Amino acid sequence: MKNNISPSQWRKSSYSNGGGNCIEWAPAHAATIGVVPVRDSKDPHGPALSFTAPAWSAFLAGVKADEFGV
User: Fold this and answer.
1) Which residues are in the DUF397 domain (predicted)?
2) Is 1 within the bounds of a domain?
3) Is this structure's pTM higher than 0.85?
4) What are the CA-CA distances from residue 34 to residues 40, 44, 56 (Å)?
5) 20 to 30 A Cα–Cα from 55, which one of 1, 19, 36, 63?
6) Residue 44: C-alpha distances to residues 14, 21, 35, 68, 70 (Å)
7) Per-residue pLDDT tens over the stretch 11-47
8) Are 15 and 25 in contact, with CB atoms under 8 Å apart?
9) Which of 40, 36, 41, 39 is nearest to 58 (CA)?
10) Which domain, by its residues, includes 31?
């Protein structure tokens, strides 16, 4: 996905604890077109990955259920 989302639309993960392993997502953009853009907060001009809303929801549910063992 081309990163053409305005800087004010990106939100840092609520699980960010000030460390360097943070992601950002654009919830307003997700609500508009049903695609969830995600990027590395350390590289705001780098690429953004795109996920369908159902795929992102399934991923978050897996993280919350500790299915990935990380």
Assistant:
1) 9-64
2) no
3) no
4) 20, 21, 10
5) 19
6) 17, 13, 18, 26, 25
7) 887 766 666 678 898 888 777 888 899 999 888 888 9
8) no
9) 36
10) 7-64
Q: Residue 1 — very low, low, confident or very high, per pLDDT cuts 50/70/90?
A: very low
Is 27 strand, coil or helix? Answer: helix
Q: Are 23 and 13 in contact (CB under 8 A)?
A: yes
Rg (CA), the chain: 12
- As a whole-number percent, the residues of the chain with pLDDT over 70 amount to 84
d(CA 53, CA 43): 23
Place of tokens 């159902």: 54
Q: How many Å apart are CA 42 and CA 33, to the nearest integer? A: 25
